[in-house]
Amino acid sequence: MRARWTKAQGLDILGAHLIDYPSPTNLGYLWGVGSTAGLCLGIQIVTGIFLAMHYTPHVDLAFASVEHIMRDVNNGWLLRYLHANGASMFFIAVYVHMAKNLYYGSYTHPREHLWCSGVIIYLLMMGTGFIGYVLPWGQMSFWGATVITNLASAIPFVGQAIVEWVWGGFSVDNATLNRFFSLHYLLPFIIAGLVITHLVLLHQTGNNNPLGVDTTTDKMPFYPYCYVKDLFVFISFAVFFSFVVYFYPNVLGHSDNYIPANPLVTPAHIVPEWYFLPFYAILRSIPDKLGGVVAMVGAILILLTIPFTQSSEIRSSTFRPLFKILFWVFIADFLILGWIGQNVVEYPFVEIGQVATVFYFAYFLIIIPFFGYFESFLLRMKVEN
Questions:
Q1: 348: preceding bond cis by omega (within 30 degrees)
Q2: Could you tell me the pTM of the whole model?
Q3: In this structure, which CATH number among 1.10.10.10, 3.20.20.370, 1.10.287.980, 3.40.47.10 belongs to the domain 271-385?
Q4: Domain extents for the chain?
Q5: Per-residue model confidence as pLDDT tens for the chain (385 residues)
Q6: What is the DSSP string of 92-146?
Q7: Which helix H or strand E contains 221, and what residues bound it?
Q8: 98, CA 20 to 30 Å: which among 61, 82, 209, 318?
């Protein structure tokens, strides 16, 4: 006879994961940023559904439909600014979340699958953000889509065929816009499903903590202690988000996107959204087109390797003073790459970008895999002396 779930059993499961879930007592406010990223995803899905009701995915009407949303739809301007800036807020939350996990070693055993699921979510976010940037059909939308999709032509033998398949023709046109709109509507729901998987893996392994020490005794229930901290992070985030939306709604955008797309006029300087700039800088730092594409893709996929290459016996950077310095140098390096990505391709930006690219890969290919052995050697020398 097949077992049936009762309402009481369902409530018990929800209570075990949302109220009584055992959490480390020393969790800080940074642990609320992951929940904030989930809140951002919810905002993006809700505002996106309402925007899709008024948007027209056609090259002759897309730009005008966005203007219609801004001018004629009740509170359409608010929906659009919430959605456009919400994407930036989502990436800010995810970047802070990833930096926190890198610092406290939350990618190490037994959380390898948790980290990898987060990287996959990040990859899908980048794809969703890119195709969403194309939809307003402004100058930067059109030329950004042309440049980025054309990178696939660097793949030997099949590159041009892949580009034309993505475009649906011989240039970025109506077919491209239609399929990008469809994908942009679909992908957030796939991301939401992966976020649920991410949470299941988190509750299976348990939270890391600032000390990086797993314990089964020093725990507290998730409610009310963690709820209060998450609520504080939510309110702080809402204040910052509201300030951007109401006072500086275009500060993270590009002015050229308020000009309708024109295939005959190329912008002086083509740049993607700010959250792609570090990887765009890596792409431009390699003189060869194929090499640049491989480096850019590799810069993202390399994040999947660190749970399996790290060599330190200590999880948290709190107790790794030398590695802590290198971590903050890496953060500075990532910000420098973002700054280089928005500048023109000329001296000295090219040279700075190349140095920053070398350190970026050195951090993941040399420092993380081998620095743990160096720390162990120093520790043994200290003990012997």
A1: yes
A2: 0.94
A3: 1.10.287.980
A4: 26-256, 271-385
A5: 455 667 777 777 777 777 878 888 888 999 999 999 999 999 999 999 999 999 999 999 999 999 999 999 999 999 999 999 999 999 999 999 999 999 999 999 889 999 999 999 999 999 999 999 999 999 999 999 999 999 999 999 999 999 999 999 999 999 999 999 999 999 999 999 999 999 999 999 888 999 888 777 788 888 888 889 999 999 999 999 999 999 999 999 888 999 999 999 998 888 899 999 999 999 999 999 999 999 999 999 999 999 999 989 899 999 999 999 999 999 999 999 999 999 998 889 999 999 999 999 999 999 999 999 998 888 888 777 6
A6: HHHHHHHHHHHHTTTTSTT-HHHHHHHHHHHHHHHHHHHHHHHTT-BHHHHHHHH
A7: strand 219-221
A8: 82
- For the chain, the distance separating the N- and C-terminal CA atoms, rounded to the nearest angstrom, is 69
Residue found by looking up tokens 């475009």 in the block: 167
The residue behind tokens 């950077």 is 317
Reported residue count of the chain is 385
Fold adopted by 26-256: Cytochrome Bc1 Complex; Chain C (1.20.810)
